[in-house]
Amino acid sequence: MGIIEVKGLAKSYETRSRRKTTRVDAVAGVDLDVAEGEIFGFLGPNGAGKTTTLRMLATLIPPDAGEATIAGANLRSQQAKVREAIGYIAQGGATTDDATAREELVLQARMHGISKAEAQRRAVAALAAFELTEYADRACKTYSGGQRRRVDIAMGIIHRPKVVFLDEPTTGLDPQSRAHMWDEVRRLRSEGMTVFLTTHYLEEADVLCDRVAIIDGGVIVAEGTPDTLKREISGDIVTVGVGEDFAEKAGEVLTGQDYLTEVEVRDGGMLRLAVEDGGTAVPRVMRTLDDAGIATSTVEVHRPTLDDVFLTKTGRSLRES
Amino acid sequence: MKVLHDTWLIFHRNLKLMLRSPLWVVLGVSQPVVFLLLFAPLLKPALATMGAHSQAQAYRIYVPGMLVALALAGGLYAGFDLLRELSSGIVERARVTPVSRLALLLGRALRDVVVLVVQAAIIIVLSLLFGLTVSIPALLIGYGILALITLTSASFSYGVALKIKNPAVLGQLINNVAQPLMLLSGTLLPIALAPLWLRDTANGNPFNWAVTGMRALFTGHPGDPSIWKAFAMLGGLAVITIAWSGRKFAKSVR
């Protein structure tokens, strides 16, 4: 029994252009099962339906179809209970320029029905936990991006929710702030919260998340731990550089070789080969190309990444989209 | 109970934030003040048809109309502030909590009422210098009318802002609503000068009754039927507008 269970969740929008009205499926039937205490990552390109799914689960927009339970509460019929159980931290943040971090935290707690005295106590504790005490009584507009993001997260968990939704928590942060944010996310989990985050950063999904669902075009195309997903792509990836002029020919020569499971000609005179075992495949690739009179400029063997998983499932690279 | 608690919470926060940039309370009142000063020499001859035989009498007719215009316009433009809050995620942040949706509206609209009370006080004090006289009870009843107007116009503006996210479109729409309403209320020009069909139209306009009622109060006729008519019509309109706008706050905001 997962803490978040989702079945067939769907949402479409009408877009009007001139006289034509078209329906766009933002989310086209998503099933999810997130276990308590997990950091669950929703990986996909912009416009894949990540935010729409998250906003539906956070009770902000009503789904067109499908069912979901969060911490045992039904998303459609028990919205108030869902709201008690969740914290939601939007992508753009939600701090007011002129308000101070302390004021924002107290207000957020009180909107959850927490008494004034208790709200003030929790604000003090949250400020300390997120290393904001020093700036607590300064206006939010004077904060750095990372500090403001920490206020957002502190607000999102001020009522001690069971589940925290984080929409693109590190977008726009510098590498140092990003690493800091990952630590904060791990800390949320260590305090017993389940974290559901969206990201379009491969590394974030790989390093931070216990389990990942890859979404594209409103549909989940793969789901599992980052390691399982990568292992599903059997073998290694070999990238060979032969130059623009020879790429096509090299592709033809290599296609059909029994030790290659996949051959793809990419831009810039590169070939991407999926192989059983990189160590034994490379000499054979080199020899085959040599026999055909094609010189190789670079050869690289790497373990599959989540991008390779994405590429295998959708035919596109996440980096390109 | 929860609605009251949450309304206080939202009201208190919005008032506190506004006090940090009090400039726009002053800016909001600057136009009526300029009107007050520039129009002053014209008032007596212009309002002679309505029985203004002295400068003080002219002010008793002019100032109530201007206060109604101030309440109407001040509330109608409140939606812009909400647009800013929508884009910075503050409304959404409130909507994931169990906070009362009606309180999200009422807390803001009541803040606008407080702003109006301050602005109206500035106008009235200035007018006293020009010879306006008004009794305290009449003034308090007048404030009741103005508060209902602001509640209505601000709630309407918030509801529209939740539907129309584009500030340019919102501005045009608000203008298109405000101008005819002001004319049909006789806020600045007396509706008595208008042809019959225009006066008939104005009779169905609660804000026209508000202006008439306010003028009755300021000219020392607290028993005039236009006063209770103004309260009844404005009260009804306020309830309808708040109900409509409150639903907008409860429904999804993209």
UniProtKB/TrEMBL annotation, chain A:
The top of its lineage is:
Bacteria, Bacillati, Actinomycetota, Actinomycetes, Catenulisporales
User: Where does the signal sequence lie?
Assistant: none
Name the species this protein comes from: Catenulispora pinistramenti
The record's keywords, sorted A to Z, are:
ATP-binding, Nucleotide-binding, Transport
The similarity comment for this entry is: Belongs to the ABC transporter superfamily. Drug exporter-1 (DrugE1) (TC 3.A.1.105) family.
**Annotated membrane topology:** Peripheral membrane protein
- Can you say what this protein is called? ATP-binding cassette domain-containing protein
Q: Indicate where this protein resides in the cell.
A: Cell membrane
Q: Which NCBIfam families match?
A: drrA (TIGR01188)
TrEMBL record, chain B:
Q: State the compartments where it is located.
A: Cell membrane; Membrane
Main location group: membrane
Q: Which InterPro entries match?
A: ABC2_TM, ABC2_TM_bact-type, ABC_2_transport, Nod_factor_ABC_transporter
Sorted keywords for this record are: Antibiotic resistance, Cell membrane, Membrane, Transmembrane, Transmembrane helix, Transport
Question: Coiled-coil stretches, from where to where?
Answer: none
Q: Which residues cross the membrane?
A: 21-41, 61-83, 113-134, 140-161, 181-198, 227-246
Q: How does it sit in the membrane?
A: Multi-pass membrane protein
Every ABC transmembrane type-2 domain range: 23-252
Annotated Pfam families? ABC2_membrane (PF01061)
Is this entry keyworded Cell membrane? yes
Indicate the family of this protein.
Belongs to the ABC-2 integral membrane protein family.
Full protein name: Transport permease protein
Taxonomy-wise, where does this protein's organism fall, top ranks first?
Bacteria, Bacillati, Actinomycetota, Actinomycetes, Catenulisporales
